[in-house]
């Protein structure tokens, strides 16, 4: 994903794997699953502005995550149009928050996100809220936002707990293996309860500590769909079940 107020960041990935998480059992191991059988999706922010959603669906998109907020004071000015427009075109849609842990607490940023688009409802079309937690685009000298590993884990837990308290769902965690293992110390506590959305552009997927496989995979920063290119690690029926909770 991209931070709306900085240059886009480097990314990772190309293949996909299987997860059994958050009540959704994904049926096949990646070595036995044809990549082109998994639903395609993408993620967008203010960089994409006004998206032609019907064209995106015609090109294969079946889901999208739109950036809603960043830190505790930024809102994507195109979010409502992106979120509502994608749904009108027949895509499953979800909202994500770009975390800036140095700015305020996880609880405060979760509340800001939930007030400005991050809510979830069991309508069969809304994907669970997502937390984008990765290297600091605002200060390359502080990739972990100045937080120690234990403090970062507490920040993520506080964000997750507030989302769970308000929506009933644990957030999807978007991250890279390198950042997670560095900035949380390879913490394994989230893997059993939080779906992983892995940014990995390599030929060999290496999930961070705590996860065996990603539930979602961001595999390219550009392609036929607007924004970053993603793939769900299962069938369309399983994706719809995942949205429904």
TrEMBL record:
GO terms, molecular function: hydrolase activity
Which positions make up the signal peptide?
A: 1-27
Q: Extract the SUPFAM superfamilies matched here.
A: (Trans)glycosidases
Judging by the UniProt lineage, the source's domain of life is Bacteria
Q: Which keywords does this chain's UniProt record carry?
A: Glycosidase, Hydrolase, Signal
Q: Mind telling me which PANTHER family this protein's record contains?
A: LYSOZYME (PTHR34135:SF2)
Q: Which family does it belong to?
A: Belongs to the glycosyl hydrolase 25 family.
Q: What is this protein called?
A: Hydrolase
From which organism does this entry originate? Streptomyces yunnanensis
Give the taxonomic lineage as stored in the record: Bacteria, Bacillati, Actinomycetota, Actinomycetes, Kitasatosporales
């Amino acid at each position: 994903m991209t931070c709306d107020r900085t240059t886009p960041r480097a990314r990772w990935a190309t293949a996909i794997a299987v997860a059994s998480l958050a009540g959704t059992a994904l049926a096949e191991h990646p070595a036995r699953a044809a990549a082109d059988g998994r639903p395609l999706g993408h993620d967008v922010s203010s960089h994409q502005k006004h998206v032609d959603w019907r064209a995106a669906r015609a090109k294969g998109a079946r889901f999208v995550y739109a950036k809603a907020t960043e830190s505790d004071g930024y809102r994507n000015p195109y979010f409502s149009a992106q979120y509502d427009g994608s749904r009108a075109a027949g895509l499953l849609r979800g909202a994500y928050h770009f975390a800036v842990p140095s700015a305020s607490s996880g609880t405060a940023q979760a509340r800001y996100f939930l007030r400005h688009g991050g809510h979830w409802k069991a309508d069969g079309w809304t994907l669970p809220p997502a937390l984008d937690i990765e290297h600091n685009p605002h200060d390359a000298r502080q990739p972990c936002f100045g937080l120690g590993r234990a403090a970062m884990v507490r920040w993520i837990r506080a964000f997750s707990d507030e989302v769970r308290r308000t929506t009933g769902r644990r957030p999807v965690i978007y991250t890279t293996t390198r950042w997670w293992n560095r900035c949380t110390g390879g913490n394994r506590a989230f893997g059993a309860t939080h779906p992983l959305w892995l940014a990995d552009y390599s030929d060999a997927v290496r999930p961070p500590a705590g996860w065996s496989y990603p539930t979602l995979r961001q595999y390219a920063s550009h392609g036929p769909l607007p924004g970053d290119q993603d793939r769900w690690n299962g069938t369309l029926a399983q994706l719809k079940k995942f949205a429904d909770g």
